Amino acid sequence: MAVIENLKPRGYVIQAVIAAIFVVFIVRLFYLQVIDDTYKQIADDRGIRKEQVDPDRGQIFDRNGKLIVYNEPSYKLMVVPSQVKDIDTIRFCEIIGVDKEYFEKKMKEAKNFSRVRESVFLSQISAEDFGRIEEYLYEFKGFYTAITPVRRYTYPAAGHLLGYIAEVDSNDIKKSDGYYRNADMIGKTGVEKSYEKLLRGKKGYHNIVIDRFGRAVGPLNNGSEDVEPVAGKNLTLTIDIELQYYAEQLMAGKRGALVAIEPSTGEILALVSSPTYDPNMLSGSARNKNFAKLALNKENPLNNRALSGYYPPGSTFKPVMAALGMQQGSLTSTTGYSCPHGYVMSGHTVDCHNHPYPANVELGIGHSCNAYFCYAFRYFIEDHSNPAEGMRDFKAKLALWGIGTRTGIDLPNERNGNVPSPEDYDKIYGKGRWKASNCVTLGIGQDRLILTPLQSANSMATIANGGYFYSPHVLKFADGEDSLMNAFTIRKETGISDSIFKYVRHGMAGAVNFGTAKVAHIDSIQVCGKTGTAENPHGKSHSWFSCFAPEVNPKIAVAIIVENGGWGATYAAPIASLVVEKYMNDSISAKRKPLEERMMKSVLILDREVVPPIQNNSNQDTTKQVQAALLPKEQ
């Protein structure tokens, strides 16, 4: 007991020490939190901002490795609504270069998105404007600048094929995989849309310490918590950008389209829609203003006629009709039909030009005899039990060519074209009350037969190959994405043997050597082609030409339409042959230079509006009227 009594004083001492230490802590905390405001000021003067870092969008190269689309830095102004307090709105608008209405609209959108998260207030700011804004931005808490990549193009060509990017809208965000948020950029058309997920990359995020004025002090924890962006994949396309640019120059001042394909692979070498535009016009700060001008231009330069233009193919369809007839057995290689200046039926004549007697299928194609192919269509239909069955078979067989259906090209907004059905004629004449003679001009590419320029070029590739084709495509390869190309290696058969196509090819060679397409003759290359003059109820006939070259082991197939160009040999055949020569020989012979110059200088759109030059001073939103102007038009 004595020992215990002796320990009690020591316990009191320990308790007193502990109590004293506790009191010291309490006093110190009271001082720091109530009396001393040093740490309060530090807390007030510091904050953390999580910034989205946009990845570099993938670059795009042509088939020869030439860079055609790249990125350069652009600037944007961000806002965090909860941090915006007591700013001089008028002064802010003057410095930024916007009006009060724009300010109020963007602040409302930002608050609706999130009061505490950043969103884009102004995008695609030029370097000059960025420097001016940055100088005064410390006055406006809650605003800061960020860098984002913007698209640039090395050639003023291929706008329709490459497409453009623009800010996402509500539909883009709803339909996406959660990747997009307000003011992000997305591919809207062309390659940019088709391969958006490959090109966009992955976003990054930086945690930035900021002072009381919203100025960046440095990274949080030396950047250990940051997520770096991953650049999008680079794409190599099938197009030859030099050939593309050359074809666009030949088509300048004309309305129409041209498509060039490598038959053995289905690779698109050039895809032109005219009038066109410099793709740089739809990039950067001037995009919205230029987009409005292009969309409201009455020549509709934003419409991709190569994929969505609807045209009767005219006589360019005759080689296809010849192959169908010979496959059916209703036509042979030695069949001849008389042509008394046309096909006569019930007092009505389908006119034809003056030419020698078409004693066989090769001469029928070579001289482009209308009567010959009216008979060919008529006997094809009559070789079936009834006209309706014949028409269904006609439609089904053409679908195997990619006619009347989509070819499967890896670009958006391709249209089907049209091959009529028996029901179409039942509506006109009554069910069972029509026959082949009522629609005999289908055999010469008229009546209700409608093709797109892409389908016409693909039919030439099919003939060049001897009865098969590969889906036309513009992607040659993307790193690590080999499986994407599988769909383009599937051989699509028409069911027609090459023994039939040899007569078709010889006939098309004859058309260039002695027939209607002599203007397309190239001394060093055997071009196989077919002119077409498609009737147009709205004005002068359309000028068509479809071809491939050379006859043996073809390297290129081309289809071209020049709207209101008249005879196929007037504009379409010369332009197509120049494109063939340029691709095959990399130059135009001195003998054909005058033809090249004449095509370059020819202007058919006499009342066209001038495509606006690139501007750099607009941030206006696109109107519904502009969007409506982009709806495809029936030709």
Task: Chart the SSEs and their pairings.
Layout: H1 2-35, H2 38-45, E1 47-53, E2 60-61, E3 67-79, H3 89-96, H4 100-113, E4 119-125, H5 127-136, E5 143-153, H6 159-162, E6 165-167, H7 170-175, E7 185-187, H8 190-194, H9 196-199, E8 204-210, E9 216-219, E10 235-237, H10 241-251, E11 256-262, E12 267-274, H11 287-296, H12 305-308, H13 318-328, E13 342-345, E14 348-351, H14 361-366, H15 370-382, H16 387-399, H17 422-429, H18 453-465, E15 468-469, E16 475-478, E17 492-493, H19 498-513, E18 528-534, E19 542-549, E20 556-562, H20 572-585, H21 593-601, H22 624-628
Helix pairs in contact: 10-20, 13-15, 13-19
Task: Explain how this protein is built.
- There is one protein chain.
- A hairpin with a 6-residue loop joins strand 19 and strand 20.
- Mean pLDDT is 87; it is low at 36-45 and 607-635.
- The chain is an alpha+beta fold and 635 residues long.
- It is built from 22 helices and 20 strands.
- The protein is elongated.
- Helix 10 runs antiparallel to helix 20 (572-585), helix 13 (318-328) runs parallel beside helix 15 (370-382) and helix 13 packs antiparallel against helix 19 (498-513).
- The N and C termini lie far apart (115 Å).
- The protein folds into two domains: 48-231, Penicillin-binding protein 2a (Domain 2) (Alpha-Beta Complex), CATH 3.90.1310; 241-601, DD-peptidase/beta-lactamase superfamily (Beta-lactamase), CATH 3.40.710.10.
- 43% of the residues are buried.
- Strands 2, 3, 4, 5, 10 and 16 form a six-stranded mixed beta sheet that branches.
